[in-house]
Amino acid sequence: MPEPKTILTNTAPDADELRLERLEVRDELFDPDDEYRPEPPPEPVPPAWVDGSLRIGIHTSISGSYLNALESARKLGCNALQIFSASPRMWAGGPSRIPESDASAFRARREQLRLGPLVIHANYLINLAGTQPMLRTRSIQAFHDDLVRGIALGADFLVVHPGARGEAKMETAIATIVESLKQAVRRVRLGNLRILIENTAGMGSAVGSRLEEVAAIVRGLSSLGVGACLDTAHLFAAGYDISTESGLEATISQIEQTIGLENVYVWHLNDSKIALGGRVDRHEHIGHGKIKAAAFARILRHPKLGASITTGMPGRPFLLETPIEDPGDDRRNVAKLWELSGQEGPAVEKGFSMLTAALKRKLTKHRKEAAKAVKDAAKKSLKKKKKG
């Protein structure tokens, strides 16, 4: 019997068949009934402090531990707070990085206390408008370090003063500030941390005393989501009369036309030792300065500035930077804001103050010694001149 012949045929699939095979495989992998099919990423959940409640806080000390700042805020009756991430008056004010064990403990305790937002104030020495290469380099590095520490702590905002322009023109200074910030942010994943530019009182050649100047910086950094922080004492000293009802309305209108209220994420509430337009930055206890208590009541209760979901900004905090000259000054200023707001704040630990009687004596002694050292140095200098 003859063997069957092998017939060779071209059985390779054509392009249409291959395309159908790919579609069939794709359908099998992503079948609607398949329990493993990919789901869209969940919508980000807003922080707990964005709940429509009024947020009032104070700048608290990190002396001894970052956790101490949280406990101080709690004991003083705050539900928000501001801190420094390191010493604010030294270039090398501490480690540029925070150990993860310390940072995670801080984040966990803050979540437990439901304190927010957390605002970090940048180093006072930073001058982002600086024209001297060494100063500008140091400023960029210091701000970069503040960013890194802020991210580690889970901060929501990082506030920075624009700086002083010296002999430079305002337009040049603003361009320098924008470029300095862009350099500081390079290779940093900001995540939920937002940078805020704070207005100034206008001392010397400081940039930012006019709302238009703050607005120009914010616009120049729109790609980074930069916003603004407005200080009441600075506004008043710069010539914005927020002490009267009509003056406050006029100032709010100017904010809307320049920065935009939606870009003002934080308010620093400080009374002013300086008269309107005095261009000097001197904070006073709430109700004891030139702005007066009634003005702060209007600010705290203003529908556009409050926490209302329909008219204000939920989570926008009002933070105190008032002086603590005697034990209890901090507690009294926080209580005053809650009183003026017409709302009841969190429970307070009776008698607590960040300034104890012993610490006050120590600080007073230190100031006297420093003043004596300056006086002695001046005397020596005068004697040398006379001998010469």
| Main sheet specs | 8 strands, parallel, barrel
What is the topology, as strand order, of the major beta sheet? 1-2-3-4-5-6-7-10
Our count of helices gives 11
Beta-strand proportion: 5-15%
Report the CATH topology name. Answer: TIM Barrel
CATH architecture designation: Alpha-Beta Barrel
Helix content: 40-55%
If you average the pLDDT, what whole number results? 90
Run of helices and strands: HEHEHEHEHEHEHHEEEHEHH
Annotated CATH homologous superfamily: Divalent-metal-dependent TIM barrel enzymes
Number of domains: 1
The residue ranges in which pLDDT falls below 50 over 5 or more consecutive positions are none
CATH class: Alpha Beta
User: Compute the gyration radius: what is it?
Assistant: 28 Å
What is the secondary structure topology, with strand pairs?
Layout: H1 15-29, E1 55-59, H2 66-75, E2 80-84, H3 100-113, E3 118-121, H4 133-153, E4 157-160, H5 170-185, E5 194-198, H6 211-220, E6 227-231, H7 232-237, H8 245-257, E7 264-269, E8 271-272, E9 283-284, H9 293-301, E10 317-320, H10 329-341, H11 357-387
Parallel strand pairs: 1-2, 1-10, 2-3, 3-4, 4-5, 5-6, 6-7, 7-10
Antiparallel strand pairs: 8-9
Helix pairs in contact: 2-3, 4-5, 5-6
